[in-house]
Task: structure prediction
Amino acid sequence: MNPYYTDYSEYLQRIFPGIKVQKISLNAGLSCPNRDGTLGTGGCTYCNNHTFNPDYCHSTPDISEQLRRGKEFFARKYPQMKYLAYFQAYTNTYGDRSRLMAMYREALEAEDVVGLIIGTRPDCMPDNLLSELAEINKQVPVIIEYGAETSHDHTLEAVNRHHTWYQVEDAVRRTHRAGISCGLHLICGLPGESIDDILTTTRRACQLPIDTLKFHQLQIVKGSTMARQTESGEMVVKTFEVDDYIDLCVEIVRLVPRSIAIERFVSQAPADLLIAPRWGLKNYQFTNLLHNRLKALTQ
Ligand code: SF4
Result:
């Protein structure tokens, strides 16, 4: 057991006791209302969805095939592994409801897939879809991850999210009432935000009925609006240095109760896409540094 906070493996063990489970990221070829013109066309200023997709989902839109390739990749290490179909790229509850449901069911029909994780926007969870997901959740675990990013509406506006914190709260409460486990994704270091702003968001998130929190440092990636804005000098964005980010994560750990699992603190965009910050650390290496710091603080 992690002595400092509830980590994601502990959370998964609560849901799947005694079973080793691994997420398989899927790209269902969906769009996003912030890209297709419904809300906007440019997307969130930091977004380049290519950063989400591992190699096994680049070349085919076929969900079963992506799962097969993903399982092949992981089963080499651990043949008894079970899998969670993770609809990650873009907005995975956005589109025709019957097509979405068919897609989720197709994933669940794959051998050894024992649950669904669906990443989406908080303004893209209509009640009728939520009810259908609640029915699936009676058979196998369904987990919803909402991209919230920050609780500060002025920042949400500045990064072109086209939703508000109120919509995050509403989506989380409706999901909780439907009996479905849910979590929030937050970005630390969005333009104009101070450490206090980030910690305020963490506190607000912890007051909601969520099960997980997923943090990552702001990354400027090629192909994003933010990359263009910083390159042209239209915007100056200061990304975190490793030590400062560790200090922030220590404060986050202090705020997040044991009832909420922290899935991760960092993300790592592919090296060929990442502009800044270039820490040269793998996620596990960052986590080790953080744990060393937490350990030192308790001694
Ligand atoms: S971060 Fe999500 S909501 Fe924003 S543009 Fe990218 S896919 Fe759409």
